[in-house]
């Protein structure tokens, strides 16, 4: 296979070479970076929240009137909810994981620390929380019913014993047994003790480094007259239980509005909306880009075949086989693609650098560009196959015809 | 000659339908994706109140923890404490000012057919309506005296009025919110700012509120904010202690009608902070801010990085489509060398050939633009489907429709420049000889 003649004939029509080359370069750069972003977002969306999402849902009760006894309502509601057929357990909770709103506070290891070591999400629950959330205990114990207390919304005191996630335990006490250790939620108040550690429970906010830091507290803090419950149904019975919850709560207390009935799967769906949109839009751009590039190669190759029909016929007449002609066009495409990809590799890293600076995106992993190379080579070869086959079918007689 | 060239262009495109389809498709796809993302970008970042966006300013003071800033980038808190908001309201140094916060209350309709439901609202001062200019359907804002007297008055949104009174004139009637009766003094007309620019700390795309009551009434009733709340110094328990604390949970906007007034207000804020420092508060270095609407929207990143990246990658895609079009137009024009040579031999000037072929490119652009417009509509529909919050920023208005067609035509003209120039350089004699 002679590369020289192909190269020299390409050099003669430099413009076409530049056009296709540039297209391929840009395509590689855009596809590598866009694909990286899509993969990141899909990974993010696949993170487990830690709780049993298939069977759980939340519901909110909002009392009205100055006479509404919110604490009494919470006690009644919990009894009724737990007694409902099909319910495994129910817990009061201030906000739910992935719910995009909630409470957070800092954790410090010593009282004279100037700034907290980390920031944790706070879940105000009771002793039924672990069963209701479906979160297994890794170490330590659950809250005792006697440890659970009601608090007003802005009461500043934290409980003496809390349950934390493994992520916090590993950050504060790496490699050690965390149960029994102390830390300070408020450096001016007495220390808090870790009484239990759970494997995982995400915070309500999804976009921070601290999504895995959550602390469970045995306190029930209604938000004014509003109380929220997280309920776990038996496997497969969630929707059925959800359809009955409003009526059940309405029966025991009519002086309140029951609202915000949402399954945890729905909460997850809403929570990741922007990531989903990014993945879909960029996925679409990637697909369209590859399609356009492929069609463009087909178009240009067809044009060249048509333009060089006589040349092909002459070569065939002089003894080239069909396979030779086919290989000629395939090699030509391979050269153009390679030149384009060389520029594209540089462009891909340049684009990534700019995205890193402007949007704090991470660095492109090393394997994206080589995979991009391979894919575009294959794409190019497949695209040129049609026109190249057509070229190979040009009969040698063309060479002798004058029309 | 223009219509002649149009006809020529149209006929030329029909001669090779596959090539034409490819060119038109490429432009349509490039324009469609770009305009979808650009529409969202443009609408999200557009000035929601252009006639006075530079007169409305958001107040920020830095009362935060001396040991750790509110934000990593050195910004002051994005809300105020109750003490500071009250002090600023009482001083009244701007032309208009309002402190406010987001609340929600159960609505207990008189009509037994409508079940009680929870509505989000805003606790604010009378000046809010003059500052942000929501349109009124019936009545108007409450008087400033009502602010001082903790009046039980309310302004309803059109949706709330629709739900409770069937949309009729309900001025003078009463609405029961959380066991208190409020007299209706105003009903708003449909008010759908694309971005909720006056409350960016609680979600810039959230739905408009259902009712507005005086700030002083809400605090008298100890209504908690349903918006953001952040404290660095744990207060004592109870509502009064909360009001005295360093927790930030209020938003404050001021209106200054002249640059001089703005400067005066800046100095006033400076002296207020100096006074407070003497009382032992505001331990951090002074960091007051008075960003106007557009600056505040930019500071709060209303247009998220995601939206920008989507637009930029779409435009990069459009560039690839244009390169594709250049190549295909070049191929097409080179193939027509015979015809071009003939026209030149018959007396057509280079300029006329240039015009003819540029118009042909324009026809490709026009067809691509029309299809691109349809694709943009589909694209925006997909965006609304994926992200329901974007309902108000993912719509096409007439300026964007014209922009779509214009983008397609300009893009194709640019793409056509090089191929057209090459076509005009054809030497007639060479072409005529080969026949």
Structural class of chain A: alpha+beta
Percent strand of chain B equals 5-15%
Mean pLDDT across all residues of chain B, rounded? 91
Question: Judging from the principal axes of the Cα atoms, what is the shape of chain A?
Answer: elongated
- The low-confidence parts of chain A are none
Strand fraction of chain A equals 15-25%
Spatial shape of chain B: elongated
Total helices of chain A: the number is 11
* β-strand number of chain B: 10
Low-confidence stretches of chain B: none
Mean pLDDT of chain A equals 92
Describe the protein's architecture and organization.
- Chain A is an alpha+beta fold and 403 residues long.
- Chain A folds into two domains: 3-46 and 273-400, no CATH class; 65-254, no CATH class.
- Helix content of chain A is 49%, strand content 17%.
- Chain A is elongated, with a radius of gyration of 33 Å.
- Chain A starts with a helix and ends in an 11-residue tail after the last helix.
- In chain B, strands 1, 2, 3, 4, 5, 6, 7, 8, 9 and 10 form a ten-stranded mixed β-sheet that branches.
- The radius of gyration of chain B is 30 Å and the shape is elongated.
Question: Can I get a quick summary?
Answer:
The complex is a heterodimer of chains A (403) and B (435). Helices cover 49% and strands 17% of the residues of chain A.
SSE layout and pairing:
The complex is a heterodimer of chains A (403) and B (435).
Chain A: H1 3-12, H2 14-45, E1 56-63, H3 70-83, E2 87-92, E3 103-107, E4 118-124, H4 129-133, E5 137-140, E6 149-150, E7 161-165, H5 166-172, E8 182-183, E9 192-198, E10 214-217, E11 219-220, E12 226-233, H6 238-252, E13 256-263, H7 264-271, H8 273-307, H9 309-317, H10 322-359, H11 368-392
Parallel strand pairs in A: 4-10, 6-11, 7-9
Antiparallel strand pairs in A: 1-12, 1-13, 2-12, 3-4, 5-9, 7-10, 8-9
Chain B: H1 2-15, H2 17-45, E1 56-60, H3 82-91, E2 96-107, E3 117-124, H4 127-132, E4 136-139, H5 144-148, E5 153-156, H6 158-165, E6 174-177, E7 180-188, E8 211-214, H7 215-220, H8 239-244, E9 251-255, H9 259-278, E10 289-292, H10 293-299, H11 305-335, H12 337-345, H13 350-386, H14 398-424, H15 428-434
Parallel strand pairs in B: 3-8, 5-7
Antiparallel strand pairs in B: 1-9, 1-10, 2-3, 2-9, 4-7, 5-8, 6-7
């Amino acid at each position: 296979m002679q590369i020289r003649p192909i190269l020299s004939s390409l050099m003669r029509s430099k413009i076409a070479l530049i056009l296709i080359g540039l297209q391929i370069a840009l395509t590689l750069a855009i596809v590598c970076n866009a694909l990286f972003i899509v993969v990141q977002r899909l990974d993010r969306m696949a993170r487990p929240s830690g709780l049993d999402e298939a069977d759980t849902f939340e519901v909110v009760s909002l009392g009205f009137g100055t006479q509404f006894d919110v604490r009494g309502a919470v006690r009644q509601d919990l009894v009724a909810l737990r007694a409902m057929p099909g319910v495994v357990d129910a817990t009061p909770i201030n906000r739910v994981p992935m719910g995009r709103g909630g409470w957070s506070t800092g954790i410090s290891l010593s009282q004279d620390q100037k700034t907290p070591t980390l920031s944790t999400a706070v879940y105000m629950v009771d002793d039924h929380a672990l069963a209701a959330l479906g979160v297994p205990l890794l170490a330590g114990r659950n809250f005792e019913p006697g440890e659970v207390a009601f608090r007003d919304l802005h009461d500043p005191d934290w409980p003496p014993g809390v349950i934390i996630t493994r992520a916090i335990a590993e950050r504060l006490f790496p490699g050690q047994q965390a149960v029994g250790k102390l830390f300070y939620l408020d450096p001016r108040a007495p220390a808090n003790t870790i009484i239990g550690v759970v494997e995982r429970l995400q915070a309500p906010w999804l976009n921070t480094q601290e999504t895995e830091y959550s602390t469970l507290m045995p306190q029930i803090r209604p938000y004014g007259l509003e109380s929220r419950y997280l309920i776990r149904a038996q496997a497969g019975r969630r929707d059925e239980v959800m359809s009955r919850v409003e009526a059940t709560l309405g029966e025991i207390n009519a002086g309140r509005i029951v609202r915000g009935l949402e399954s945890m799967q729905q909460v997850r769906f809403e929570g990741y909306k922007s990531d989903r949109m990014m993945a879909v839009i960029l996925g679409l751009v990637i697909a369209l880009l590859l399609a356009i590039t492929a069609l463009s190669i087909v178009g240009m190759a067809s044009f060249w075949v048509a333009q060089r029909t006589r040349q092909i016929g002459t070569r065939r007449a002089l003894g080239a086989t069909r396979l030779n002609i086919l290989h000629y066009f395939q090699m030509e495409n391979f050269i153009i693609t390679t030149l384009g990809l060389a520029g594209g590799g540089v462009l891909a890293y340049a684009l990534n650098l700019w995205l890193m600076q402007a949007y704090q995106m991470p660095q492109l992993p090393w394997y994206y560009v080589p995979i991009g190379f391979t894919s575009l080579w294959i794409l190019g070869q497949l695209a040129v196959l049609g026109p190249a086959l057509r070229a190979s079918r040009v009969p040698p007689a063309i060479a002798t015809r004058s029309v | 000659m223009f219509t002649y060239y149009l006809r020529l262009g149209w006929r030329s495109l029909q001669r090779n339908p596959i090539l034409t389809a490819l060119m038109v498709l490429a432009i349509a796809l490039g324009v469609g994706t770009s305009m979808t993302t650009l529409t969202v970008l443009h609408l999200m970042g557009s000035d929601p109140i252009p006639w006075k966006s530079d007169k409305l300013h958001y107040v920020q003071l830095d009362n935060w923890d001396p040991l750790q800033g509110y934000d990593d980038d050195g910004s002051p808190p994005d809300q105020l404490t109750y003490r500071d908001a009250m002090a600023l309201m009482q001083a009244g140094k701007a032309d208009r000012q309002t402190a406010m916060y987001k609340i929600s209350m159960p609505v207990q309709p008189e009509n037994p057919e409508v079940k009680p439901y929870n509505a989000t609202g805003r606790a604010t001062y009378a000046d809010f309506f003059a500052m942000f200019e929501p349109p009124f359907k019936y009545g108007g804002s409450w008087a400033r005296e009502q602010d001082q007297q903790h009046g039980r008055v309310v302004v309803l949104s059109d949706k709330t009025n629709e739900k409770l009174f069937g949309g009729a004139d309900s001025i003078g009637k009463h609405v029961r919110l959380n066991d208190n009766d409020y007299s209706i003094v105003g009903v708003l007309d449909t008010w759908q700012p694309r971005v909720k620019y006056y409350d960016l700390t609680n979600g810039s795309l959230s739905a408009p509120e259902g009712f507005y009551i005086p700030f002083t009434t809400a605090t008298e009733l100890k209504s908690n904010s349903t918006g953001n709340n952040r404290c660095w110094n744990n207060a004592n328990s109870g509502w009064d202690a909360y009001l005295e604390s360093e927790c930030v949970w209020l938003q404050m906007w001021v209106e200054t009608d002249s640059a001089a007034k703005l400067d005066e207000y800046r100095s006033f804020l400076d002296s207020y902070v100096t006074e407070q420092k003497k009382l032992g508060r505001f331990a951090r270095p002074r960091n007051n801010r008075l960003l106007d609407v557009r600056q505040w929207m930019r500071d709060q990143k209303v247009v998220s990085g995601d939206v920008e990246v989507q637009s930029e990658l779409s435009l990069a895609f459009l560039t690839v489509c244009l390169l594709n079009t250049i190549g295909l137009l070049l191929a097409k024009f080179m193939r027509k060398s015979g015809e071009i040579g003939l026209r030149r031999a018959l007396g057509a000037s280079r300029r006329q050939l240039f015009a003819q072929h540029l118009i042909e490119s324009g026809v490709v652009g026009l067809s691509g633009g029309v299809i691109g417009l349809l694709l943009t509509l589909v694209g925006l529909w997909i965006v609304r489907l994926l992200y329901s919050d974007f309902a108000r920023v993912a719509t096409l208005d007439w300026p964007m429709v014209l922009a779509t067609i214009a983008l397609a035509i300009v893009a194709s003209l640019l793409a056509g420049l090089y191929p057209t120039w090459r076509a005009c350089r054809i030497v007639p004699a060479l072409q005529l000889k080969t026949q």
